[in-house]
Amino acid sequence: MAATSNIVVVFDFDKTIIDCDSDNWVVDELGATDVFNSLLPTMQWNTLMDRVMRELHAQGKTVDDIRKALTSVPIHPRVVPAIKTAHALGCDLKVVSDANLFFIETILEHLGIRECFSEIYTNPGLVDPQGRLRIRPFNSSPHGCTSPCPPNMCKGGVIEMLLSALPGKIFIYLGDGVGDYCPSLKLREEDHVLPRKDFPVWDLMSKTPMLVKAKIHEWTDGQELEEILTKTISKICSSFPDDRDISSQLISADCKLQTVSTSAAHEPLCHRPLPMHH
Ligand SMILES: [Mg+2]
Ligand SMILES: [Zn+2]
């Protein structure tokens, strides 16, 4: 069995897969910034997004307008190849996000990478019979976590559940925000956490390095995300004797991986043996 099938890669979505916050993007693109800002001091973010969707619907904005806005979100050009490569190698990819299912699926489908992910854990986002997008909390009852998770979603709870549901798997977690701190603390010594440098999760982890058991590898942009993710997968593979081959091919700087397609899952990445770095 390939070692990559023992690897679960969990991605945050906003400012990790895409290079902006999808909630802010839609609000700004559809001209609801003022109403959003005026309500922000009085409402919890998740409830506010549902409320703003109601305002937009009342103004005649359709779900298609929202969809259109979502297809223009900024994304670093190396992120999609990084995701396709991890998937093609046999890793199990998941999204854990405080955005919502409608936004995430729309964007992933637009990028052609929806099928790379086996699961998406996020706030429900459904279009009601009137054509209005409704956004609900992921945790419908209080999760009781204060470290520091928003009331509608504790991502740490998701990671705890995955760790016990998938025994023997090694986890790689990528994120940028405050909500990515709690799941990072749940990871074990054998896991890897990839915080985005100079973003809130990185700040929190830098203040409390003793609380993080997983190995930490920081990244700054999509190019580094690709490099660090590939190296981390390779490192995990090199600890499985059967998969030294994949590892040595992956780690080479000569072998850029752009040519790996999802159909090439178990074919060699390069045609000549390459040195392995440790
Ligand atoms: Mg984020
Ligand atoms: Zn939490």
Query: How far apart are the termini?
Result: 22 Å
Main beta sheet: 6 strands, parallel
Global Rg? 19 Å
CATH structural architecture:
3-Layer(aba) Sandwich
This entry's quaternary arrangement is: single chain
In sequence order, what are the helices and strands, one letter per element? Answer: EHHHHHEHEEEHEHEHEHH
List all distinct small molecules, including ions and cofactors, that are bound in this structure.
magnesium ion, zinc ion
Specify the CATH homologous superfamily.
Answer: HAD superfamily/HAD-like
The secondary structure category is alpha/beta
What percent of the residues sit in helical stretches (DSSP H or I)? 25-40%
What low-confidence regions span 5 or more consecutive residues with pLDDT below 50?
Answer: 253-278
Beta-strand share of residues: 5-15%
CATH topology: Rossmann fold
InterPro entries: HAD-like_sf, HAD_hydro_PyrdxlP_Pase-like, HAD_sf, Pase_PHOSPHO-typ
Keywords: Hydrolase, Magnesium, Metal-binding
Active site: 12, 14
Pfam families: Put_Phosphatase
